[in-house]
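Write out this protein's structure.
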Amino acid sequence: MKTKNMFKKNIFLAVLMVLLIFVCSACNDAPTNTDGDEEPGPGEIKIYCTNASYDGLHWENYKLTNSGRDEMVQKVFGLLGNQPSSASHKKVLPEDVSIISYYFDEDDQLIIDFSSQYMNMSTIQETLLRAAFVKTFCQISGVEYLEFYVEGVPLMHSDKPVGIMTDSDFVNFYGNSSDLKQNMKFTLYMTDKEGKLLQDCVINVDIDGMKSLEEVALEKLIMGPEASSSFEPVVNEKTVINRIRTFDGVCYVDLSEDFLSKPLGKITDEVAVYSVVNTLCEIPGVTKVRITINGSERKNFGKVAINDFLSLKPELIAQEKAGESTGNN
């Protein structure tokens, strides 16, 4: 009888310990600010959310135990799926959108596969969800890049895969932003009528987080200068960006065959190549560029080798600053 009572007592203590661990874990994951939008303290993480008007991103700080990357990711998924504690906040994940699976690929990128209802979101809802998920998860050590899938198919935007995303891809959608846009400066490298040196051209662009900064900059470079400017185009306007992503400081850009045809014959091969390289290296986090054509490596662009990692070439930049365009594009 004594042995049986002791057995029951041990079971009771074991269950009690599990309950205590669960309660303590819940306490660690509790919000530390009820109104939100305060900078996190030591050991805290921002869980991004929005509000009923979907007019921007907000956040609530949660204290998470550093229990390793995978366990912290699992906890954050739970927090993003729960309604925020503040009555003025709203979670970014709609009730009818479920997460089918998530995993880390061989490059340690966090892959998230959503249900088909993901595609029913409005543009604003979808942009805020991507921004909230990426900015939240990228706070975890070991998580730098995310990629979204819908029912096993890469998320598309304008018939192109959205691809890999990181924190710097998104503008700060904080507070009363009616159109979720932010005006940013980009430095593009074009040339003059001689075509022997690069001229830096600073432009302002309204971005909405739908494209990475690298894609925005390269698209503007391909579009070329305004007709009234003194700059000359350096990239064939028919060039298509097949894919562009940045990983570990390297911007991998795959372009169509049109890139190999210069818009003006007098432009040197070096200027044509490094207009792209220098422009992309102006983006924060990009230190090198790797160019491929239609998914394949090319040895040369004319006389310039492009089958390697290319870095900023300041000696090609004209010493006198050509000017600055302040208009929005």
